[in-house]
Specification:
Blueprint lengths: L2 H32 L9 H10 L11 H20 L15 H21 L3 H32 L4 H10 L6 H17 L18 H4 L5 H26 L10 H28 L8 H22 L2
Helix pairs in contact: 1-3, 1-9, 1-10, 2-9, 3-4, 3-9, 4-5, 5-6, 5-7, 5-11, 7-9, 7-11
C-alpha cells in the first residue's frame, strides 16, 4: 500500500461524501429549470442535512434495534460502494475488493436492511414500500450484473479497476455491446435511484411512492443519514456509468499529476450526467407500478443482448 494510493482512496471517499448532495441539488435544479419552475438552491441538500442532524430523532415505541441501526448500515454500504468505484484513480487499496459482484452485493445489502427497517414498525406504508423496493431490486440486480459482465468480457476481469484500465487505454471505438449495455444501465439507474419514470422523488403520494414510503418513520439524524445515503447511491451509479462508458480522465497508478486533474474532470462529467438525468425525467411520464417489471425486463434483455454481441461477434 503506497502513500499515493492511500491518499487517492481517502480523496475518493471525501469527494463522494462532499459531492453527492451537490449532485442531487444540481439534478433538482436542472429539472426545475426545464419545467419552468422556480429552481431550488444548489446547496439546499446541504442545508437540509444540517437541519436534520441538529434535530432529535423520534423513534417508535416498539421499534427494534434493527430500526435504529439500519440508517448507519445503509450509509456505510453506500460509502463503501463509492470507495471501491474508480472515480478519480485506479491506485486504490480497496481495489482487490472492487469487484462487480461485490458492488451489486453492497447495493443489495443496503436494500435488505432498508426494507426490514421499514417493516419493523408495522405501518402499512412501510410494508408497502418494502414490497415494492424488493420487487424492483429483484428485477434490477440481474440486469445490473449483466451490464457489468458485458464490460468484464472486454477486460477479461470483473475487477472495476481493471475494467477502467482496459477501457481507458483502448483506442476510441464504438462497441455495439457497450451501446446496448449503456441503455440497460440507464434504465436500471432510473429504477434503482427512485427516479421518473419508475418513481418520483418529488412526490409524497401514498399510492405511488416507493423510496419515501421506506423512510416515513425516520426523523432527525436517522433521516439525515438515509437522505445522504440516497445521494451517495445516485453518486455511485453515476460514477459507475462514467467508469464503464466514459473512463477518460481517471488517473492511473503511476500518474500522480493526473490525480490533480481527475477531480475537476469528474465534476464536469457529473454536471453533464446530472443535466442528462434531469432531461430524461422531464420528457418521461411516471409509469404505473405494474409496468415496472416490463421496464426492467427490457433492461435485462438489452443487457443480455449486449453480452451475446460481445461473446458471438466480439464487438
Amino acid at each position: 500500500m503506497t502513500l499515493l494510493g492511500t491518499f487517492s482512496q481517502l480523496l475518493e471517499i471525501a469527494a463522494a461524501l462532499a459531492l453527492a448532495p451537490l449532485l442531487t441539488g444540481w439534478v433538482n435544479q436542472c429539472r426545475a429549470w426545464m419545467q419552468n419552475k422556480s429552481a431550488p438552491g444548489l446547496l439546499l441538500p446541504y442545508r437540509m442535512l444540517h437541519k436534520l442532524f441538529n434535530k432529535d430523532s423520534v423513534v417508535a415505541e416498539h421499534a427494534s434495534p434493527l430500526f435504529r441501526s439500519a440508517p448507519y448500515i445503509v450509509f456505510g454500504c453506500m460509502t463503501l460502494a463509492c470507495a471501491i468505484i474508480p472515480t478519480l484513480s485506479t491506485d486504490l487499496p480497496l481495489s482487490p475488493a472492487a469487484d462487480a459482484i461485490a458492488l451489486v452485493g453492497l447495493f443489495a445489502l443496503a436494500r435488505v436492511f432498508m426494507s426490514l427497517a421499514a417493516m419493523d414498525v408495522g405501518t402499512a406504508f412501510g410494508s408497502l414500500g418494502a414490497r415494492r423496493e424488493m420487487l424492483i431490486g429483484f428485477l434490477a440486480e440481474p440486469a445490473l450484473l449483466m451490464v457489468l459482465f458485458s464490460a468484464a468480457l472486454i477486460s477479461k476481469s470483473t475487477s472495476l479497476t481493471t475494467i477502467v484500465d482496459t477501457l481507458g487505454h483502448r483506442e476510441l471505438a464504438i462497441y455495439p455491446s457497450l451501446a446496448f449495455a449503456g441503455v440497460a444501465f440507464a434504465m436500471v439507474s432510473l429504477a434503482e435511484n427512485a427516479r421518473v419514470p419508475v418513481d418520483n422523488p418529488a412526490t409524497h403520494l401514498e399510492l405511488t411512492m416507493i423510496h419515501e414510503a421506506l423512510i416515513l418513520e425516520y426523523s432527525g439524524r436517522h433521516l439525515a443519514l438515509l437522505e445522504w445515503a440516497a445521494s451517495l447511491k445516485l453518486f455511485a451509479y453515476s460514477c459507475t456509468g462514467l467508469a464503464l462508458f466514459f473512463p477518460w480522465g481517471v488517473a492511473q497508478a503511476d500518474e500522480p499529476v493526473a490525480l490533480l486533474l481527475a477531480l475537476p474532470t469528474l465534476v464536469l462529467k457529473l454536471a453533464v450526467g446530472g443535466f442528462a438525468l434531469a432531461f430524461l425525467e422531464t420528457v418521461s411520464a411516471k409509469m404505473r407500478i405494474f409496468r415496472v417489471p416490463e421496464f426492467l425486463g427490457t433492461a435485462f434483455l438489452m443487457a443480455v443482448i449486449s453480452m451475446l454481441i460481445r461473446i458471438l461477434l466480439e464487438a
